[in-house]
Design goal:
single chain, about 300 residues, alpha/beta, Rossmann fold, 2 domains, seven-stranded parallel sheet, five-stranded parallel sheet, binds NADPH dihydro-nicotinamide-adenine-dinucleotide phosphate, binds oxalic acid
């Protein structure tokens, strides 16, 4: 029984060495090596290779190397093959740190202070208490909840919006389309951590922005296709949104002349909010393979019809 890994080579080598010790019954091959294709049960990848079942006729599970699985389309996944996305502590810690950095920077007025530095101006502004800066996590799954756990310890009142209700201490849960407006009206800083699906594509548009309090900030670390770029530029121009921190765009990278690169009220990072850590994720992979072998539900199993 074997695993084929098709992604970042450095992480692959760490996984291969770790699995050789921890699971000698499993052979792991780094693409283009595959060993005997008839023995391949597990494929770890970001992209689906052509002719999947011709290459690996006994494939059973595709593991995404990342938290998202939107890069896989239903027509690429043969019937009966499970898709599992990555839920691992390294990814969660990284995201919580990126979101915390963004929220604290926005709350403490760092965009304005950086502009002042460029103008050689030494000028203090009033800061409101963290307890008066409300943060809303649009998409309140693993990464949203990990971020809220850190933010609440810093005193930020947090709320989350998801499809189903959540019960997380000290966080207000809003759920479903009917509660979206109430959620948005309570966000001084809106953080998008939604998966990309047919329902979330272009969700961040002028209709949504106008439901935020005037002058709210946006942190976008979900997926590029969720944001309408022109609507964000209009919302920044009108002051409806005062600043945006954007980690994901469509396309990635943006064209050289795209206005986001130079906009004074946008900070742009190149999809670095969070990444799968080799050391922590390989344990999650092995745990899921063992679950699969025992007929248990794997952690992070994707519902391809729902899209995440
Ligand atoms: P989860 O699946 O754990 O969480 C997704 C959340 O979104 C859930 O709370 C879910 O609700 C909610 N949701 C999905 N669709 C809807 C909808 N139509 N209406 C309301 N709520 C909805 O995913 P993760 O937290 O692990 O990851 C989230 C996303 O973050 C990834 O899909 C990826 O796009 C992005 N990401 C970005 C990275 C970066 O570096 N920028 C790195 C890693 C991930 P419910 O729980 O009720 O189902
Ligand atoms: C992921 C990502 O989905 O890096 O893991 O965006």
């Amino acid at each position: 029984m074997s695993i084929v890994y098709w992604s970042d080579a450095q992480r692959g080598q760490i996984w291969q060495a770790w699995l050789a010790q921890a699971a000698p019954d499993l052979d792991m091959y780094l693409w283009p090596e595959t060993g005997d294709p008839a023995k391949v049960r597990y494929l770890v990848t970001w992209e689906i290779p052509d002719n999947l079942l011709t290459r690996f006729p006994h494939l059973e599970v595709i593991f995404s190397v990342g938290a998202g699985a939107d890069q896989f389309t239903t027509d690429q996944i043969p019937h009966g093959i499970n898709v599992v996305r990555m839920i691992e502590p390294g990814l969660m810690d990284d995201m919580a740190a990126y979101i915390t950095f963004s929220v604290v920077s926005l709350h403490r007025g760092m965009p304005r202070y950086l502009r002042q530095q460029q103008q050689q101006r030494w000028l203090k502004h009033e800061t409101i208490a963290a307890s008066r800066c409300r943060v809303g996590l649009l998409g309140f799954g693993n990464l949203g909840q990990a971020s809220a756990r850190v933010l609440t310890t810093l005193g930020y009142p947090c709320s989350g919006w998801s499809r189903t209700q959540k019960h997380i201490e000290a966080v207000t849960s809003y759920y479903g389309d009917d509660q979206l407006a109430d959620f948005l009206s309570s966000c001084d800083i809106l953080v998008c951590l939604l998966p990309l699906t047919d329902l979330t594509r272009r969700l961040l548009d002028c209709d949504l922005f106008k439901q935020l309090p005037k002058g709210a900030c946006l942190v976008h670390a979900g997926r590029g296709q969720q944001l309408n770029h022109q609507d964000l530029l209009d919302a920044l121009d009108s002051g409806q949104i005062s600043h945006a921190i954007i980690d994901v765009t469509d396309p990635e990278p943006l064209q050289a002349d795209h206005p986001f690169w130079t906009h004074p009220s946008i900070w742009l990072t190149p999809h670095i909010a969070s990444e799968t850590h080799a050391e922590t994720s390989v344990k999650v992979l092995l745990d899921n393979i063992r679950r699969h072998q025992q007929g248990l539900t794997m952690v992070g199993l994707v519902d391809m019809k729902r899209g995440y």
